[in-house]
Design goal:
single chain, 306 residues, mainly alpha, 9% strand, disordered N terminus
Length: 306
């Protein structure tokens, strides 16, 4: 469901492309800092978090491209426009997250099985991780409002959230190393980061496949909508209801509405149609709806062949 409230101004109310660009700048900057910090400190966890940042930077670039494509107007060939580009961008993001999980997990296990003479500079690791956490918190705040209305921005938001949690784990591992000199904490933190990636990736994949499968939006009860529409004077029945999403926050609704013959004969069909569309827009947040009005005694072809 998307919010029709007027923009309040400020960074968080900027367009999706600008928000993604701000997050990309923050993510890429911290990624460079983490790579340098990982090399200097010898921390695998910090390097894993930097790799996560690199993946997120790539994903944000994909998201920016997808958002730009989705903004293109509809044409005679793509009558709904290019909003599905956001969904494909989110799909690529999810695949990248899964690949990252595998790489980090393998490296972490290898470090635990064969630690060698591993030495990690705890204080430097801690300082870099704190910088990463602060930057991720800012990026999440920037994307927090827009992620409620865009599956593409939500993909970027979830990735930044993972970075934030990853930075927190690196901080804990660094504190352990500084206070106890127990080096396996670094490899364990890298494995925990990998474990965190999987549910986020699966959640995003599930939402993408739900959109591509043209399932009804989560939380939208078709029976409730049908009963709500049947309350209007002159409406006898609502059937052949179809509702799906072009992308997150962009539901589409179609239905056949049987009405009393007097409604059509009196010229009230236009008013009823406007009432039904307004009902969906105001009560169920469905801006794009199509109704086929038919007399109550109409023999529906789909029902006849069912």
């Amino acid at each position: 469901m998307h919010d029709h409230a007027p923009a309040a101004g400020g960074i968080r109310d900027a367009g999706h492309r600008r928000l993604l660009a701000i997050s990309l700048t923050l993510t890429a900057t911290v990624m460079v800092v983490q790579v340098v910090g990982a090399i200097l400190s010898g921390s695998l966890a910090l390097l894993a978090d930097a790799a996560h940042m690199f993946t997120d930077s790539s994903a944000l670039v994909i998201a920016l491209v997808a958002t730009a494509v989705a903004a293109r107007p509809a044409d005679d060939r793509r009558t709904f426009g290019y909003q599905r580009a956001e969904v494909f961008g989110a799909l690529i993001n999810a695949i990248i997250l899964i690949a990252l999980m595998v790489v980090v997990a393998v490296q972490g296990i290898q470090r635990l099985l064969d630690p060698g003479e591993t030495e990690v500079a705890g204080p430097l690791m801690l300082a870099v991780a704190v910088i990463g956490m602060v930057a991720n918190a800012i990026a999440m705040w920037v994307l927090g409002r827009a992620q409620k209305t865009s599956i593409n921005v939500r993909g970027a938001y979830l990735e930044v959230m993972g970075d934030l949690i990853g930075s927190a784990m690196v901080i804990v591992a660094a504190v352990v190393i500084v206070t106890t000199r127990w080096m396996p904490a670094d490899a364990i933190a890298s494995l925990l980061i990998a474990v965190l990636i999987l549910p986020r990736a699966l959640s995003l994949l599930r939402e993408v496949f739900s959109v591509l499968a043209e399932s009804a939006p989560q939380g939208m009860a078709i029976s409730e909508i049908r009963e709500h529409l049947k309350v209007y004077p002159g409406v006898v029945d609502v059937h052949d209801v179809h509702v799906w999403q072009l992308t997150r926050g962009a539901p589409v609704f179609t239905a056949h509405v049987k009405v009393e013959p007097a409604v059509l004969a009196s010229g009230e069909a236009s008013r009823l149609l406007q009432d039904l569309q307004s009902c969906l827009a105001h009560h169920f947040d469905v801006e794009h709806s199509t109704f086929q009005l038919e007399p109550a005694d109409h023999d529906d072809c789909e029902a006849a062949h069912a």
